[in-house]
Amino acid sequence: MTTVDEQLGRSREHRWNLAWGLAPYGLLVLACAVYLVSDPVGLDERLVTLGIAAGLAGWHWWFAVAHPRWWDRRSWAMAGYFVGLLALTSVLVLRGDAFQLFVPACYVLAFVALPGWPAYLGVVAANVPWLVVPGTASPSVLINLAVATPLAALVGGVVRAMEREAVRRREVNSELVAVAAENARLHALLVARAREAGIAEERARLAREIHDTVAQGLTGIVMRLEAVGELVPDPGPVRAGVDAARDLARTSLVEVRRSIEALRPGPLQDARLGDAVRQAVATWREQHGVPAAFTVTGTPQPVHSEVEVTVLRAAQEALANVGRHARARRVDVTLSYMEDVIVLDVRDDGVGFEVGSAGGFGLTALRQRVRALSGSVDVESAPGAGTAVGVAVPVIEVER
Hints:
Helix content: 55-70%
Mean pLDDT: 79
Strand content: 5-15%
EC number: 2.7.13.3
Cofactor: [4Fe-4S] cluster
Number of helices: 12
Order of helices and strands: HHHHHHHHHHEHEEHEE
GO molecular function, one term: kinase activity
Radius of gyration: 46 Å
Structural class: alpha+beta
Subcellular location: Cytoplasm
Main location: cytoplasm
Shape: rod-shaped
Low-confidence stretches: 265-271
């Protein structure tokens, strides 16, 4: 990830490189102007000299301006460039003293073209164009060169150290940005894990509370009803009522235990959804005395407890609505296992209703529970045409 500061740093570096690449042209143009004004030579000589100067300009443009990436990546190519630069500069200095104005640019270009310690050798070699001029063997000139060379090396070294520091700071900033991004990712992951742990702990607490209260109470009710049933003569209306209450308590106990399993962390291990829905249909049929058929299609498979409980609650809610409102003569319940979805269909031939006017709490809660699993609930009905409730829930398989 590139930050704004890093982009600005790269932009400044690009501008500095362009300035270093174009700076020698100013000295070359100045030297050519002085040469044309001061050297009393013929037109042909001037044209040849200017042609050599143009060749030097093109040579520098190709290596230093057109391909600035070569400065750091192609050391041998830039070494050849620097040798050619000194050769062309020496030829120009021999043809006109005015071109000595261009020689200081060779000191700078030594650090531009050559990496590491070879740059300092380049600074020493940059004196060649001056040394080829007649009369440079005098002690005063040699002293000047001996002073200018270390000074140029010192300035170049300082500039190069500043460039290295700028690059180092940019790399450090990039690392800090990467570390900050990683820390933010880890913090978000930690918050998510803490939230999941809190949810799991609360679900486990609710499971314990339900087990210790409701489940234990229903167990006691079943045991007492069984004891009462043994004291009541059979057959008889009282015995039938006691048996119905006992069966209802047992069914409620099974549902409470299933809810406890759903609240506990981890998936269920067996595919018991079909049996649970079949039991719910059978219980509803006995309670309401209405024919109700249950069909399973596809291959049953183990799914997560959330999916089992959601589909079971959907079947119970749909059947409860049929019993309360539909006045149906027949109900058909179908549980379909598809490749990546489980579909529950509950159809009745009752009085029906206007779908837009349905807004009971049970149906609203069912929609919320199904949507929490990225599922869908479709209700089709019309007055006098019965009702069809379809629930589709994605398959969430148990972990192997």
